[in-house]
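pls design
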């Protein structure tokens, strides 16, 4: 009776699929953690700028919509990469900072400076965490 050799090509495809899924899941969790921590971590933790006024809720967490908007983009992701997005109208201004213009009731416009409070983006810490998790998964696959 002859045994079939392992189908390494299929094994590699399966591991790759699982790695992309795991990387996406970990990235979403990491970015959502920014809201609990009140800042973003690239190489080191960067605390968000405090508000000028005092409120009972955490910064960027009044409704929870911004945090909940973080998800994997099915349209932009494929078998080789995963793309995480936050798709509210105000995601970019809070993540990147900048100036917005608002109209007052009398019709006059005022410019408001929004400080950067990054909650997602490139992170060496995240990449290190994902690399460790994926290495462990690949090792387990061959045990």
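designed seq:
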């Amino acid at each position: 009776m002859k045994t079939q050799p392992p189908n390494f090509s299929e094994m590699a495809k399966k591991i790759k699929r699982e790695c992309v899924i795991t990387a996406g899941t970990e990235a979403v969790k990491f970015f959502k953690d920014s809201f609990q921590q009140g800042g973003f971590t690239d190489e080191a933790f960067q605390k968000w700028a405090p508000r000028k006024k005092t409120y009972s809720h955490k910064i960027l967490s009044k409704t929870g919509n911004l945090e909940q908007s973080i998800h994997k983009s099915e349209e932009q992701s494929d078998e080789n990469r995963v793309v995480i997005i936050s798709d509210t109208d105000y995601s970019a201004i809070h993540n990147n900072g900048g100036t917005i213009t608002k109209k007052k009731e009398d019709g006059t416009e005022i410019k408001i400076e929004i400080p950067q409070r990054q909650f997602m983006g490139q992170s060496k810490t995240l990449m290190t965490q994902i690399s460790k998790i994926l290495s462990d998964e690949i090792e387990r696959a061959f045990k």
